[in-house]
């Protein structure tokens, strides 16, 4: 029992430590869903689960000694939310105040939400594989199950945070500009903090 509780505790700490920033993105998405109708809540939840599942799958493969994405280049995943944000800004500029929802041009569907989740979880790919490598099949299965439960908790918390009317009104007024900027900043931070720019710079 102590071993099981220890595995559950480790999984909880690991998830919270590596995915706490997802709360910000999920809250923004749920705010946009309430203010503009896109993406739909079901798409947000499905996209978050798909993104976390992809991160876990890649980490599991990496734990077996197969480098799916070389570590120095993981930071390039930050280009995904940056590109989505840029697309959203272009849509907002083109459509003006009549833009179809705050994230219509940013993350309007399940795949886009999953892409942002994967990009925002680039640091997970440096944390999960070493842990999975030291675990047996049973502990790994428990960890994945805990992750699945906590993704649901994260979505529920974000949906609650995104239900405040005053914030929704702000998003309704300026979300079609604000949300793309948030996604672009997120992407830039991921790229810069990974150090990939230095690797691409000669000398």
From TrEMBL:
The keyword Transferase does not apply. Signal peptide: none annotated. The chain crosses the membrane at residues 6-32, 44-67, 73-90, 102-122, 142-163, 175-198. InterPro entries: Cd-R_transporter. Keywords: Membrane, Transmembrane, Transmembrane helix. This is Cadmium resistance protein CadD (Predicted permease). The keyword Membrane applies. Pfam families: Cad (PF03596). It comes from Nonomuraea muscovyensis.
């Amino acid at each position: 029992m102590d071993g099981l509780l220890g595995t559950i505790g480790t999984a909880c700490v690991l998830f919270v430590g590596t995915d706490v920033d997802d709360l910000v993105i999920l809250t923004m998405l749920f705010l946009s869903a309430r203010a503009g109708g896109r993406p739909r809540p079901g798409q947000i939840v499905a996209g978050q689960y798909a993104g976390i599942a992809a991160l876990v799958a890649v980490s599991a493969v990496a734990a077996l000694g197969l480098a799916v994405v070389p570590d120095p280049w993981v930071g390039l995943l930050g280009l995904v939310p940056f590109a989505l944000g840029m697309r959203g800004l272009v849509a907002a500029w083109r459509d003006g105040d009549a833009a179809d929802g705050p994230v219509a041009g940013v993350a309007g569907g399940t795949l886009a939400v999953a892409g942002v989740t994967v990009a925002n979880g680039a640091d997970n790919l440096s944390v999960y594989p070493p842990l999975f490598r030291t675990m047996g099949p049973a502990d790994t299965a428990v960890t994945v199950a805990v992750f699945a439960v906590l993704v649901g908790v994260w979505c529920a918390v974000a949906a609650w945070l995104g239900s405040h009317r005053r914030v929704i009104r702000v998003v309704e007024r300026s979300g079609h500009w604000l949300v793309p900027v948030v996604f672009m900043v997120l992407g830039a931070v991921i790229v810069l903090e990974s150090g990939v720019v230095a690797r691409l710079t000669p000398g």
